[in-house]
Amino acid sequence: MAEYKVASVSDFEDGSKLLVSIGGVEIGVFRLGDAFYAWRNVCPHQGGPVCQGRIFKRVIENIDADRKLHGLLYDETVRHIVCPWHGAEFDIRTGRHAGTKKLALDPIEAVVHNGEIVLHVD
Ligand code: FES
Q1: Ligand 1 pocket residue status of 83, Cβ below 6 Å
Q2: Residue 51: is it exposed, middle or buried by C-beta count within 10 angstroms (0-12/13-18/19+)?
Q3: Cβ–Cβ under 8 Å, residues 52 and 74
């Protein structure tokens, strides 16, 4: 497995993403706080460029104790990548689809070494 430096941590803002191509493999790299996540840019639904999708906070229903719905809220703790082809949503931290366990993104190992974000790619 080869290592590739793709960015300096100091140049990679919280909440941002970077798309890279390594040996013909397209990869999306995402930063949330001090953590970095990398996924192959291939949607498990129908192969769309999922990492090029927009990033949104998870949307949840605002239901009170009497089970009445009061619209929708953003969940401030979870960020989703929304695939640009058909709108499937994936948790940036886990790569899992928001609604089914059958779909998940293909991970690439991302580590920080000497202030650089390093990907381990087959
Ligand atoms: S290819 Fe990504 S949602 Fe269909």
Answers
A1: yes
A2: buried
A3: no
Q: Which atom of ligand 1 is nearest to the CA of 86?
A: 3
Query: CA geometry: angle at 114 spanning 96 and 41, to 5°?
Result: 30
pLDDT, tens digit, for every residue of 16-54?
999 999 989 999 999 999 999 999 999 999 999 999 999
The answer to whether the CB of 42 is under 6 A from ligand 1 is no
Tell me the pLDDT tens digit for each residue of 57-116.
998 999 999 999 999 999 988 999 999 999 999 999 999 999 999 999 999 999 999 999
What's the CA-to-centroid distance between 82 and ligand 1, angstroms? 9
Place of tokens 């949503």: 89
> Does the CB atom of residue 45 touch ligand 1 within 6 A?
yes
Q: How far apart are CA 42 and CA 48, in angstroms?
A: 6
Enclosing H/E stretch for 116: strand 116-121
> What is the C-alpha separation between 84 and 54, in angstroms, rounded?
7
